[in-house]
Amino acid sequence: xxxxxxxxxxxxxxxxxxxxxxxxxxxxxSVEIDKAFRHVVSExxxxxxxxxxxxxxxxxxxxxxxxxxxxTYGVQIDNLIGPYDQYFQALLxxxxxxxxxxxxxxxxxxxxxxLAPALVEGGAELAEVEVSNEIERxxxxxGDWVSLGEKNTKAHLIICNFVRPPSLRFGIADTSCSTGEQxxxxxxxxxxxxKFISHPxxxxxxxxxxxxxxxxxxxxxxxxxxxxxxxxxxxxARSIALLLARSFRALVKPxxxxxxxxxxxxxxxxxLGEDGPTAIRVAEGDPxxxxxxxxxxxxKDLRARGILLAICSKxxxxxxxxxxxxxxxxxxxxxxxxxxxxxxxxxxxxIIAIAEELNIGTDSLVFIDDNPAECELVRxxxxxxxxxxxxxxxxxxxxxxIGLPDFDKIKxxxxxxQKGAQYAANSVRVVERRSSTDLTSYLESxxxxxxxxxxAHSDLTRVHQLFTKTNQxxxxxxxxxxxxxxxxxxxxxxxxxxxxxxxxxGDLGIVGLYLLRLNGDKAEIDxxxxxxxxxxxxxxxAICNQLKQSVFEDFKSRELSARFAPxxxxxxxxxxxxxxxxxxTVASEGGQFDYCLLRxxxxxxxxxxxxxxxxxxxx
Amino acid sequence: xxxxLVELVAxxxxxxxxxxxxxxxxxVDTCWDSLSHLRLITAIEEQYSVRLTMDExxxxxxxxxxxxxxxxxxxxx
Lengths: 619, 77
Fold this sequence. Notes:
heterodimer, A: alpha/beta, Rossmann fold, Aminopeptidase, 3 domains, five-stranded parallel β-sheet, 42% helix, disordered N terminus, B: 77 residues, 0% strand
């Protein structure tokens, strides 16, 4: 094969989405990775992420494969490989290339062979107390490193956990020895996960699991370790690389928010309109029915993770309603779906309507259908939707949907876990609003309770999400990182207040924030963000009332400035400052709109039906 | 030299096939550094389903060496 042909081979992309389909890691050969890596590096313009790798073994087989996989996900990465076994020095020394490179992500990947050799080779002679001391020391070392990383860099820190070796030193009796490797690796990894569970800037990568997916027996290559300190090569390296590439992707790309599902032969086996509700296959008792039930339970798990479910099916609405009554054993029931379009209109129009109802973009949808023609139609007319045509065998559906990287988030928050229920409550709100003729009485009937308080360190993950993920009601769309947010929380010159909302239908959690910068008797609105879940209810006005009061009365400012910076998505916020009584200033430049409000012109605006509580701190 | 090996070396090291000759040496040619040597070993082991020993891996200095050791596994001359 000539060079030009090989280049073509790696760039073949058969998916119309900007991101291409990634083949399973086990289908790649080392030569393909080498070729693809060279191609990716030669084509790269600006990197989306600069990744520093700090390790006490050779990471190149993994860093190269991760570069290739991340590129397939549409994320270009630039690697900075730290000097061998100098992970502390790299964060401490003034002339450190790592610090100078200002990486977005640092991967810390330590092998116990170097970090705690006593535990690895010759460890059979250790006493129980020695084992637990060593585990303690390992976790403390990593904890110290993380503190340093948080202090000296702005990077997200990814800590790789430890890989259990393929053969255990006490043989098949290893599990019954308190100093056995089964215990050592399990305990060390468990403590690592526990240690960083609520650190917004730190995630633990389950490299142990990635290697076991590849099969550690064939993956551990002692020759490569003795020759070149390469711990994991070949297939295992590619499995680890895939895990890390998914993490990199989740750091820059927003997760998709909703799965739109067909019904017949997608959510259940059979055709409801023809077979009738009792005959469709969706329960235990036959392999096909069990597979569809397993698929539904997998979807229910995604819902618990904050991903919305919606129905888009050519069926009769009454038939579907009857099915929920006839088949209560079906895992997914009416209340699990945040939106539903059961009619005979075209699917792409229904999909657009679902996105509008849920107040999300069509680019945050995944559409799943068994019908090739429907899939093709949606692919062509709505290429931004990720369309998945189900394979023939329903046995594979559950794993397919759980394994999708499109829903990856680097960390889940409490808000994520409640989101499905929140949106379901929102649908009820939408329906009520349609039947109501008087907006004010509708808003009052919601019983909205708004709480505004300063952001605390424990809010970091959610605040970071609001800064990075909110597109619509976001006046300046400045994407602050976690270290910036920490500074705002601590700073005397900034006010970072967050707003949470609950109503008669449920708790919406933290839905908005504003960031004020104070300078003498002037104040500036740096950011004002409200999640689309909370739009259309006057909440932004209620928050702005509190903001004005804070600026002009608590801080005695004379003048409040603000700015609207238009983007492709933030039209919902375009007239916000005009509505709140701000004046345009003449000095608008670069497509942005500058506003100003003087103390004497400021007034509180009506926000009907919202009960506002202002707190000075978290308690 | 084994035709498949030439192709493999070109792919691993990013060379044109015409540049791949038996005299290519990791003591002389900069494209063949210690990491690309290990990538070549991994590629050969995957492609030919063989398992080379540490001594063999270390004694492969020129491409002729690689070809000779590999052909012992493949039963060719």
